[in-house]
Amino acid sequence: MTVDSESLLSNPLSSSVRAEVRINRATAKYVNKSEKFRNVDRAYNNQFCQTYSHRLHALEPMIIQQAKDKHGPDIKIRLVSELREESEAERKEDILVVGTLFKQEENRPSILKEYAEQSEDQVDMPEAAKEKYTSETDHLILEDDTMRVRLIGNVEPEYFVNGVIVGAWGREAKGGNFRVRELIYPKIPGPKTEGEDVSLVVVSGLELVGQEHGEYLEAIQLAADWICGSAGGPSDQDMASRVERVVFAGNCLAESTRNKEDSHKAKYLTQNKDAGSLGAIKQLDELMAQLAGSVNVDILPGENDPASGILPQQPLHKCMFPKSRAYPTFQSVTNPYNFSLGGRDILVIAGQTINDVRRNSDLTDSLDILEKFVRWGHVAPTCPDTIGCYPTLTQDPQTILTLPDIVIGGNQDELKWRTVTFNGKEVLLVAMGKFGQNKSILSIPMVSLHPMVMQFDTFID
Prior knowledge:
By secondary structure, the chain is α/β, with parallel strands linked by helices. Helix content is 21%, strand content 23%.
């Protein structure tokens, strides 16, 4: 016979009756919305100006609508080329100019600058990579399809990066500048949603090294057992049964598996040497196969994983997963990854763009940067300036055109979250820590959107 979990608290059955407890895993509607990240243009002879132009024209109508809501429907909108000259009469009213921010940074590496500074007989050593490109002399320039103008006034260059689309509300100033009273961001639509009674589990930064690692591998195995319902008591199994999907948000392999030094050696010196990632990929495949036998699994590539570093990162090839690819529940996806689960819209990134914004601004908190991404309407504004991306001809796929319910950034220093309201809609922002450091995963119920941390520490005092 079959009994529910509550009957475990009742009197024992007779010896002639075999009790079997079955808890079915919850299911919900799932839609992969990441096709735009797969259908990217791969014609590398194209110029990146098209990427900026598509980004501008996608977000410009939302910025204009936001400006009209704030300052009235009869506001004047001008191109940069239509700004008045110094000899013309001073403008008596504020206007709106929409464009792309360019941040002038003296400390940003430039191959042209390095080449210009070298004489014919001088050989300089390569400049060491800088952790921060910002300085006190940084300033902002607004550029549209016609011209560019320097922004002064109510602007804070230290909290912006290249590639952000904004509306500058103000008027012309002396010296060919534009004095800003307010910067206006896109009014991104976001219908309110209701979730189903399922949960999403998120893991990031497994950082597998392909070797026995004692306590660390035991923590991974314990987490997998809990997700599969093989660990804990009836309450744990009931909680695990609501997990409809597990998402691995990048960096499943450790940085040490990349063998960076081999890339500078001649091929004959490394032709008989196994890649450092082989053992780690085997470990990862075994883990994915174990999970995929019980639950849906999605895996994103990250900075350390064997995938192209150009954004959007394409899925890890299934040839690396001989065991787990046999399961229809296993799915290798893009980075970024957009999908809907149980009525909620979810956007996941592996974290490279968060780190790049941190390098190009004074923003340091991961949640603050995620909030900026949603407010700016883009998850990778510094592409293609300081982080690589595909040159696109038809669209900028990393633009946010509708507000998601959940935004997740992987591989950060600390696991934390907060809820922020954008245009009347609450959005859950999640910064995922690294499992290799905190041995924690995050379970997010689609109904309440109140995350729960599950820690799997196998060390006993």
